[in-house]
Amino acid sequence: MDDRTRTVAGIASGLQGLEYDEKRLAELAAELQVLNDAVRKASAEYLAFDDEPAAFASLMAREAK
User: Fold this and answer.
1) pLDDT per residue over 22-64, tens digit each?
2) How many CA within 13 A on the CB side of residue 60?
3) Which residues does 29 contact at the CB level (< 8 Å), separation at least 6?
4) Exposed site from 1, 9, 28, 50, fewest CB < 10 Å?
5) How far is C-alpha 29 from the chain's CA centre?
6) Count of structural domains within the chain
């Protein structure tokens, strides 16, 4: 199990109380990587480090539509 899959397993178990087999954990890790990359790319184009936290929520709400 690689680091990303292990992280997903820890979050699923420790924060959500869910258990998955290694195959599903690997799939979740891959899906989350795609989502994370998309959010980081979208936010990098519109947000600066010093922006208010609400600006991120506003951007996500706007882009989700």
Assistant:
1) 999 999 999 999 989 988 887 888 888 899 989 888 888 887 7
2) 10
3) 2, 4, 5, 7, 8
4) 50
5) 9
6) 1
* All residues at 6 or more sequence positions from 8 whose CB lies less than 8 Å from its CB, including other chains: 25, 28, 29, 32
Q: What is the CA radius of gyration of the chain?
A: 15
Which residue range is the domain that position 46 belongs to?
Answer: 3-64
Query: Can you give the pLDDT at residue 49?
Result: 87
Q: Which two tokens stand for residue 10?
A: 């820890």
Alpha helical stretches, state H, 1-65: 3-14, 22-46, 53-64
